[in-house]
Amino acid sequence: MYEIYNTEGIVLSSGDVGEANKFIYIFSEQFGLISATAQSVRQIKSKLRFGLQKFTISNFSLVRGKDIWRITNIEYKQNLYYEFYKDKNKLKTMISILVLIKKLLAGEKYNERLYKIIRRSISFLKKSSLSKEEISDFENIVLIRVLHNLGYFNEEKKIQGKDIYKKIINTSSWDKKLLQEIRNFNGEIIKDINESLYNTHLF
User: Fold this and answer.
1) How far apart are CA 10 and CA 55, in angstroms?
2) pTM of the model
3) In the chain, fewer beta carbons within 10 Å around the N or the C end?
4) What percent of the chain stands above pLDDT 70?
5) What is the C-alpha to C-alpha distance for residues 25 and 36, in angstroms, rounded to an integer?
6) Do 38 and 50 contact (CB within 8 A), yes or no?
């Protein structure tokens, strides 16, 4: 009897396998980045297919195989295309962040804090009315928190003598005031983010 594991996760990408199966990369709350297969989900009668669309958040039931996970059941929660399709700037930003997550993560590794960073960011973006400039500030904050979580960003860096990064990193909360506080430092922040991305050797 196989043990069934349950976790929430975000579908980052997928590909077709054979006539009806799918191969999926999932950024999961409990297991980090995992690869999994789903059997017969491309058939019209499949109840699982809606929970496996790209950038969908679902609860997954999985069985661990020798080299790959197998999805046995899905509880659909939301699809980020549908959440943000009315605001192209929000959609583009969130997709960009999730694509980066896939590049930065290396295999299965439990990182609940990183998952919470992304989920709280999605919630804030969904409920907040933001200008184009505020969305850009939002993206910078997410990238700093993600890069620091993965060991690529030094929170001790200062901007004009101010501990801007410590404030960004040492809190998981979101509000518009935080976006406004970093606006005047955009040039330096973007430079530091790009330097950190370069140091990952993935870009």
Assistant:
1) 6
2) 0.90
3) N
4) 91
5) 6
6) no
